[in-house]
Design a protein that fits this description.
The chain has 337 residues and is an alpha/beta fold. The chain is 26% helix and 27% strand. Helix 4 crosses helix 5 (176-186) and helix 4 (148-161) crosses helix 10. The longest helix is centred in the middle third of the chain and has 14 residues, at 148-161.
Length: 337
Amino acid sequence: MSSRALVVDRPGEHRIVTGDVPVPGPGEALVEVAAAGICMSDREVYDGRRDSAYVRYPVIPGHEWSGTVVAVGAGADPALVGRRTVAEGFRACGVCERCRCGETSLCTGGYAETGFTEPGAFADHLTVPVRLLHPLPDDADLRAAALLEPSAVVAAAVRTGRPRPGERVAVVGAGTLGLLAVQLLAASNPADLTVVDPRAARGEQAKEFGATRALSPADAESEHGSFDLVVETAGAPTTAAASCLLARRGGRAVLTGMFAPGAAGIDPVHLSLSQLEVRSVFGAPSSAWSDAVRAFALGLLDPAPLITHEFPLERFGEAIALVGGGDPATGKVLLRP
């Protein structure tokens, strides 16, 4: 039996290789991939725009994925075979101070992540440490489950933001992260859940997911100082500063988007006078993964409507071109090995 994988040898160059099915080592699981999402981080890897400290070429990308365990290595529970699953991407060491405090996304043991420094899921199979698996219900929709990685990032943001029933909440950005955030935040019973995005169609979709209002960035300027919690998900040049302006005095802002150098800074005078609590999120600790998987199993989180395109591995070039291409009709793009 053979297994295919898509390898990015260097920026702009990819090929499909065929070899033997990987063999899981001690404490590892072999997973047959059902679906793998493509995100802007993958586009950055392909274009050569990802910080060199956070990628290692040649690489098999794919950090958003779902699949089924088909074999386990020595020391792993054989009952996992046949289970539908997702897995954490960060290969946290588990022994440093931050890991022992439960902050696995802040591991000081060195950066390692599936799809960036370790072989990812743009392949028929991949191996992952069993300790990173989050098994899913037997009837889980694996197509939708491929979005549990961005869902875990959003769950980390929601945990950090500590939404309380009856609060006024804003989500800045209605991309994949923003629409997932709307679903999770709606479950906290906010008095108002406003989404800010320049794309009217995305705003309407946010309402279907539980938002009470959708505003353009220009219209949102009249709402400055109105929200108890603001969750920023866009990573656009102005959205960090704009999100802090939306928060009330003493409010909370959580920055989840990935910003490029040169983004507008946050006014320190505004921060100090408004006594804002500002936090950022990069990746997701194990606890946030557990939150996302539980919400998915309960039906509080349904990523399936975000998927707009699906491609086989052989059409990776078409798929990656859609991501970040600017077409408002493009949502989440999946590869289906």
